[in-house]
Amino acid sequence: MSESTEKTSVNTEKLESFLFGALEAGDAFQTIFEPARKIQRTENMPLWEDIDETQVEIDLTDNQLKKLRETEEDNTIKGQSYTERVQSKILKTDSVRWAVRKSEIEEREEEKAVLQEVLDIEDVGLDILSFERLNEVTQRNKCVMEVTKLEATDDLLVVSSADSHLRIFQPDYVKSRLVRDLAFKNYPIKTFFTFRDHFYVFGKRKFFLRQRISSTTCERRSVKHFFVTDYSIVAPNKDGNIFALAGKNGDVGVFQTASLNKIASFSTNDDITSLLFNENMIYAANKSGRIHVFDMETLRPIHTFFDHGGSPTTQFAITEHHIAIGSDSGCVNLYTRDSVMKSRRPEPLHCYSNLVEPITQLKFSHDGAILAWCSLESKNAVRLANVVENLTYQNFPPQFSSFGRVSAIAFSENSGFFYIGNRQGRVHAFRLKQYTEQ
């Protein structure tokens, strides 16, 4: 052994002797870490459980800890008992009750009690919508521009947007899948419908487009013997084989979809703001506030009436028994179908005045039990109502939600899902439990 190595060994022994006294170095380290070796984790013990709690003892005779004593004989307790007592005492204070997760039933009952007190509604459950928010449909395939229309079945969702695209999604609870992306070059889409195996796409152009679903090319089409400024206001019938089109100076033309032959036409004497084709009736609203009803069986106008309030009509929605009319003032009036046909100035069953901007879209659920409406003019401007009880759902849109400016809404075929599209090209999805849990 060299002289330098011997000096190093002597220096190490002196250091150990200085630090640990008469103990050997190995004995010193064993003495220091022995308590930790005695406390061993049991197999499969959760990592968040503190094993020291079972070993540590807390002295409760300290003045600050006396309030944790349950009896006068409690002088010392284990660490685990100490933790439980501290948690119990904190949870008894009002300042942290908000942090305790309550059961869904407790939360629902509290919400009902508050609403019943504030709104003075007898059966507050009728204006509480049971729903679940799902992942965004366009999470990975967002539209570049505003969503203009949503058309949904139970399995597919078709989204049109101002970026000249039709996107077909297969919605899913976790991740929605893009099935097809159809591009229509330089044609901002306002609305669309399907007939047989074709998409018919309409917008603010002097022509519209038709494309086979399985094809990548489209053809330009236009109607004859009818003056139009653009093809932005269109209403197809249920089968899609006939559509109504708004023309110049309040004229409305009715055409066969396949051949584009004109079936009939009539005038409302003012610019058309909205069209609705239902069964054998066409409802046409103009800027003067009049709503004209055209009968497809007799091919003649049969009635004219005014929406309550006098504001120009912007949107229609209709069911077997009701018709909802949205106006430029933001009000949505609900009528029976019989009442609007019997009077020129019918009285609405109910007026939903939750919004103050022009109504962009109106939609009924498949059974007519829920009415949805939205406005593009302000953020989160979307509402749902219980039509049977004439009550707006108080918990929709959800608190702290951020939908942006809502431009389109839709129910799925059996109303199990509700979709919201916005100006930023996003589509939000919700599951309506009253239809999916039956």
Describe this structure in words.
The chain has 438 residues and is of the alpha+beta class. It contains 6 helices and 30 strands. The strands form 8 sheets. Strands 3-30-29-28 form a 4-stranded antiparallel β-sheet. It has a 4-stranded antiparallel β-sheet with strand order 4-5-6-7, with no helix packed on it. β17 (281-286) and β18 (290-295) form a beta hairpin. It is elongated. The relative contact order is 0.09.
Q: Briefly, what is this?
A:
This protein has 438 residues and is of the alpha+beta class.
Main features:
alpha+beta; elongated; single chain; 4-stranded antiparallel sheet; 438 residues
Helix content: 10-25%
If helices are DSSP runs of H or I spanning 4 or more residues, what is the number of helices? Answer: 6
The chain-level structural class is alpha+beta
Number of strands: 30
Fraction of residues in β-strands: 25-35%
Overall pLDDT score:
83
**Shape estimate:** elongated
C-alpha-based Rg, rounded? 35 Å
* Arrangement of strands in the largest sheet: 3-30-29-28
Instruction: Give a quick account of the main beta sheet: strands, pairing sense, barrel closure.
Output: 4 strands, antiparallel
Q: Quote the distance from N terminus to C terminus.
A: 89 Å
Q: Which stretches of 5+ consecutive residues score pLDDT under 50?
A: 22-39, 118-124
